[in-house]
Amino acid sequence: MSFVWFVLLTFLIAAFGTGVWTALITINLATSPATPWAVAVMALILWLMWQYLDGRWWPRSTSEARHSYLRAKAVSRRVFAWALLAGVLSLIALAGSWIVLVELVGVGGNPTIPSYAQYPPLTIVLGLLMGSLVSPITEEAAFRGYGQVILERVFPAGAAIAITSVLFAVWHGPTQGFFWSKLLFYFAVGVDFGAIAYLTQSSLPAIPVHILGDLTFFFLIWPYDAARPLVWKSGADLWFWISGAQTIIFTVLAILAFRRLAKVIESGAG
């Protein structure tokens, strides 16, 4: 498989989910905002997409390959628990780093989130919840499933994770902006999820972490970015120092958790 075709395949899978959801929610809000029917339709589409990527249905000649690329393998409870802990600790560190970067650079928020002020609260909540499912499921399938599996068969694990993380950062550029701070952040996110997928040899354990991350940023981080002071103009506030300490402390804790995860898997005790 050529590198160009590999990149196109990875982006195509990621684009399918987000593209369909964007179209559905746009039509829903324009025609019948009081009835969030797009959420139910998207849930069905996500299920069908996952089944197909996992090897179901036609063409049968590609079923085995699709199943192996998705790498949706069940893991033991112990392995899953350590993967979840490592991911959550990384998420806390990443949240701190985001706030630090926003106050240093002045670029934050999520431009893809429209103004929901004129829509019913139920539609807003369900729409954000579904948005927090669409990206994790499609992106884990695309980047840590198909993309990383293909690369791991050609390159060492570290290189495979790095390449998919670069693609993951670039993938977010058109919607989030090609700012160095955001690209660096999404690269770090890709490394985190990529390490979980490689160590567990499964695309499943990173999904709940990814969902939790999206929910955290949708509801607790991005809505407050516009009000964050810029260090170079207002000086560093208390939250800047707290977020910086949070980033360092939880990065160390996450590394320790990843090391423990690797030992659990290596010992076969999972």
Write the layout of secondary structure elements.
Blueprint: H1 3-31, H2 37-53, H3 63-70, H4 77-105, H5 121-152, H6 157-176, H7 180-200, H8 206-221, H9 231-234, H10 238-267
Helix pairs in contact: 1-2, 1-5, 2-5, 3-5, 4-7, 4-8, 4-10, 5-6, 5-7, 5-8, 6-7, 7-10
Give the key terms.
mainly alpha; 10 helices
How would you explain this protein's 3D organization?
The chain is mainly α and 270 residues long. The protein has one domain. The chain is built from 10 helices and no strands. It has helices at residues 3-31, 37-53, 63-70, 77-105, 121-152, 157-176, 180-200, 206-221, 231-234, 238-267. α7 (180-200) runs parallel beside α10. 37% of the residues are buried. The model has no long low-confidence stretch (mean pLDDT 95).
